[in-house]
Structures are given as C-alpha cells and as structure tokens.
Amino acid sequence: MQIPFFSLYEKVQLILTNKIEEFHYYGYDALTEQDLWKYCVDKVWRKQDVQNLRLHELTSGIFGTTASEVLNYVQISDFKRNELNLKLSEEELQGLFHPLKE
User: Fold this and answer.
1) What mean pLDDT is predicted for residues 71-99?
2) What are 17-67's pLDDT values in tens digits?
3) What's the pLDDT band for 4 if we cut at 50, 70, 90?
4) Are 36 and 73 in contact (CB under 8 A)?
5) Please, which of 2, 19, 44, 51 could form a disulfide with 40 given CB 3.0 to 4.6 Å?
6) Residue 102 lies in a domain
7) Residue 66 included in any domain
8) Would you say 17 and 37 are in contact if contact means Cβ atoms under 8 Å apart?
9) Rounded to an integer, what distance in angstroms lies between the CA atom of residue 88 and that of residue 20?
10) Considering its fold, how many domains does the chain have in total?
11) Could you please report the per-residue DSSP string of 19-86?
C-alpha cells in the first residue's frame, strides 16, 4: 500500500504509533498506523492542503481521531474495494434482491 504524503507521514510516525497503541489498548487491534494516516488524509484534512499543514495541525488531527471513526472508514473502504471485485451470477443477484418468501 502506497502511503500518501510520505514525508509528512515520517514526521508524525511516532504520534501515529502512540495513537495506534491507544487503540490497541482499547481492543481495536486490527487498526494500523497506515489506516489512521489514510483516514486523516482522506477525512480529517480533506478540505485542506495537506502539504502545507503545520506540525501542530497534523498532531491535533491525529489525536482528535477516535478508533470507531477509523474503523468505520476502513470497513467502508474495504467494502467498496471488494464490491468492485464481486462477481455474482444473475440468479445470485435475483436471490439477493428478491429473496424467497417462506
């Protein structure tokens, strides 16, 4: 997975690690630093020029993020990515949209 804005990512990697350790402490073991970074780039700073953000703005965005926000983002991203690869037959599609009535 390619990390967007890698030079900024390197600057705040210790902060990302700290936040992910917090998530893991609360039982969100599946989340990674890359997931948190991608969420912040795509959602927290989406209307800003990420390249020109100051260190305190990056830090604030990371520390202000909750595990449930990142988890929802990751799940939806995975669902969208898998949805494009999902190949169902016409019969399977009909079964999904018109289930058999008992």
Assistant:
1) 75
2) 999 999 999 999 999 999 999 999 999 999 999 999 999 999 999 999 999
3) confident
4) no
5) 44
6) no
7) yes
8) no
9) 37
10) 1
11) HHHHHHHTT-TT--HHHHHHHIIIIITTTS-GGG--HHHHHHHHHT--HHHHHHHHHHHHHHHHHHH-
CA 79 to mean position of chain CA atoms: 12
- The packing angle between helices 55-63 and 13-25, to 10°, is 10
**CA dist., res. 22 & res. 95, Å (int):** 43
Confirm whether 1 is domain-assigned: no
Question: pTM to 2 decimals?
Answer: 0.77
- pLDDT at 3 (0 to 100): 85
Integer Rg of the chain from CA: 18
**Residue 54 domain-assigned (yes or no):** yes
Q: Which of 14, 76, 10, 85 is nearest to 39 (CA)?
A: 76
